[in-house]
Amino acid sequence: MRLVVIGNGMAGVRAVEEVLARGGGERFEITIFGDEPYGNYNRIMLSEVLAGNEPEDGIFLNSLAWYEENGVTLRAGVRVRRVNPFARKVYADDRSVTRYDKLIIATGSVPFVPDIPGMRVAERGFHQGVFTFRTIDDTRNMLRYARGHRRAVVIGGGLLGLEAARGLQNHGLDITLVHAGGHLMNQQLDAQAGAVLKRSVERLGITVELNARTTEVEGVEKVTGIGLLDGRSIECDMVVVAAGIRPNAEMARASGLVVERGIVVDDQMRAVDEPDIYAVGECAQHRGRVYGVVAPLWEQARVLADHLTGADPTAAYHGSRIATKLKVAGVNVASMGVTGPEREDDEFVVFAEPSRGTYKSVVVRDGRLIGATLVGDVDKIAFLTQAFDQGLPLPEDRVRLLFDLGGPSAETSVAELSDDAQVCNCNGVSKAALVETVTKGIRSVTGVMNETRAGKGCGSCRSLVEQIVDWAAGGAAEVDPSANWYVPGVPLAKPQLMAEIRARRLTSVSAVFAALAPGGIEDAKSKMGLASLLRTMWADEYVDERDARFINDRVHANIQRDGTFSVVPQMKGGCTTPDQLRRIADVADKYRVPLVKVTGGQRIDLLGVRKEDLPAVWADLGMPSGYAYGKSFRTVKTCVGLDFCRYGLGDSTALGIALESRYQGLEGPAKMKLAVTGCPRNCAEAYVKDLGVVAVEGGRWEIYVGGAAGAHVRKGDLLATVGTHEEVVTLTGRFLQYYRENANWLERTYAFVPRVGIDRVRAVVVDDAEGIAERLDRDVQAAVDAYRDPWQEGRAPVTPGQFRPALPLVEVR
Fold first, then answer.
1. In the prediction, which pLDDT does 404 show?
2. Which of 42, 274, 315, 613 qualifies as a FRET site for 175, CA 20 to 30 Å off?
3. Residue 110's closest CA among 128, 125, 132?
4. Angle, in degrees to the nearest 10, between helices 10-21 and 295-309
5. Residue 788's Cα: distance from chain center in Å?
6. Exposed (0-12), middle (13-18) or buried (19+): which is 45, by Cβ within 10 Å?
């Protein structure tokens, strides 16, 4: 039978997973249509991608290989325009016609965008500075636009609006959150809880405007602000609309299905009067309700699959009791049921401590918990969820529902939690699924999370997952040994891995796999980490295998979203010459470079260069690589320093150039950014670099390590104060070598230094407490001696296809 699914999101693919779990792979030939040209991803995690806390590839739930392995045909990037229920045909915008025997509609929801003057432009849709926040492409567009702008207004004070505000703030924008309601998250929280949340959000530096209705987006060529109903204007150059969602049911309506707010379905998730058409997720309306949260879709998908496959023809969906636990802009929030008393005899218990960002309330009716709200402190969520779902007996002293005053402990709550209780709302994982995984022999938290995906969404359920795993393992949960492996494909921690590599003289990635990987099996995810480690260890003895490199490292340029590349020539210490500037301008003209931009590291970036043009661009520039693409030593940012600045205490420019000249291109576990500033006024931002040098009174220099000023902000720790340039250069190399040898793959110095401890780093690097300083100096010198400008490969490509024109980025079919 032909099963067609319209919608490749979380609901549609979860329904297919449930069908496959019931043997549907043998019964059905499955085709999935998806609007977006990607595999299935976790939409809840887009806020983490926006904030810079999660890479894009980390939120995908099913790889393209999964579809192939399960015999599922994926029509990604193909939109279905209409369905003919009588002919049982699906018509797509690529003019294809697909027949079906059973059809599942899982088109999800679309952003609600108020009809506000100035928000749209007739020729191109949304104004170029206006964005919605619903898809990966939305997130990419917001991130790209945010880089060149400084103030954003987010319209909407619900979950999405708060997450968009916090995510953009992480990229340095000033944020104003505009909400038409009287308090934040008014669909989930009461006014007092909303006020506590507002205070916590404002403490993060986000301005919140309540009872503020947007009436206009100002600006013609570019966004300049928004106008409010009360006559005020708020200045901004970017607007994000996060004012809610609506079921995406227009295709179903156009196809003649019964649609009210959503596609009307019965208890088996079948569309009205259509025995072979089902709807699931945010597009479905069941018993008058549509659900805008993810948890109900897991229940709907199970019922649908039971009925569709015949596994349980009596299966029925009776609606969901919504209990959510989320992390909103960094603040824990949980809610279930009603937010306040609705009858005179309802019991309402409230505890509020706004200064600490804490609010708790419960509503009890006839001895049953019918509502609870928690902001800040959510320790009691496990018991409250169980009481709400199962109607557990409640303590007579209701305050015990909010505090552990002799009430059920967390451990007791876990033991009493019903097997079908949903632990992870993001990925629909029940307590029973976690316990079953432990019973099968996976007894570590990391292993259980990898197997079930629990805790892989917003992360708010992780503590509960840990409690359940420990309880299911009889208090003997194991530490996952793979958590300490340097790369996933070789079961060794970094010190043991390096020892084996040295002892066996393994100088290539394939040799490491052959000697140390179980069964000699090569693991694609491990290649880049191993290549970096081997280059660090063997310098010019390393045997290069090109498939062990990222695309950036294969062509020595930074790939962009559209498949072109950015080229950043080296400008040591941020200094350049008129001749270099003329050459850069000539190259930009000759190759029609779309964007020439000064970077935050005081370099000039040529963006939009075609892959096949890279060698010619490098040759015409006649400048070395600036390493803006590598997991390596990148730049040294400097201030004007001693010669010109009236506040200068040291020649920061000369020292910065000396550092960059010596350590250019030095391989590392992650990128390394440095700065030298000529006085404590810190114009070059040395305090927040991987290594920063600051000139102080008396002709001395302070060296700081482990700083950061990106998604994470951290002032570096003082490593040493020295008196000469030579000492700065020596200690810089020694610290970088120690970091190269001991940091985990992709671990930046701002994580490495706190993990190891600045006292230990100082003891090794400065005081030579372990007697390895001379060896560190020698090894970093070997790496310096092995340096070769990678842009020289443009003259003689390493492989025939190294700079072959890139394939166009096309939608997955």
1. 64
2. 42
3. 132
4. 40
5. 34
6. buried
Q: Give the span between the Cα atoms of 1 and 308, in whole angstroms.
A: 11
Angle at CA of residue 292, ends 287 and 293, nearest 5°: 110
CA atoms within 13 A on the CB side of 566: 20
Q: How far apart (Å, rounded) are the C-alpha atoms in residues 602 and 586?
A: 20
Burial of residue 451, with CB atoms counted within 10 A of its CB: 0-12 exposed, 13-18 middle, 19 or more buried: middle
- pTM of the full structure: 0.61
Q: How far apart are CA 285 and CA 288, in angstroms?
A: 6
Give the 3-state secondary structure of 479-517. CCHHHHCCECCECCCHHHHHHHHHHHCCCCHHHHHHHHC
Give per-residue pLDDT as tens, 404-434.
654 444 444 677 677 877 787 777 788 888 9
> Within a 13 Å sphere around the CA of 454, how many CA atoms are in the beta-carbon half?
30
Cα torsion 743, 746, 751, 755 to 10°: value is: -30
Highest mean pLDDT out of 525-539, 548-562, 629-643, 688-702: 688-702
> CA nearest 152: which of 790, 141, 512?
141
Answer whether 687's CB lies under 8 Å from 715's CB. Answer: yes
> What are φ and ψ of residue 716, in 5° steps?
-65, 160
Q: Which ranges constitute the DSSP H helices of 289-356? A: 295-309
Arithmetic mean of pLDDT, 129-151: 90
Full DSSP string of 208-257: EE-S--EEEEE-SSS--EEEETTS-EEE-SEEEE-S-EEE--HHHHHTT-
The more confidently predicted of residues 550 and 566 is 566
d(CA 474, CA 469): 9
Report the pLDDT value the prediction gives residue 379, as an integer from 0 to 100. 76
Place of tokens 């340097």: 486
Residue 604 pairs in a beta bridge with 598
259: β partners: 263
Residue reference for tokens 């990966």: 136
- What distance in Å separates the CA atoms of residue 669 and residue 221, rounded to the nearest whole number? 43
Q: Are strands 130-132 and 120-121 parallel, antiparallel or unpaired?
A: unpaired
Is residue 262 over pLDDT 60?
Answer: yes
How far is Cα 766 from Cα 758, in angstroms, rounded to an integer?
A: 11
The sheet with strand 214-218 has its strands ordered as 214-218, 225-228, 233-235
CA angle at 496 for the pair 494 and 502, rounded to the nearest 5°: 100
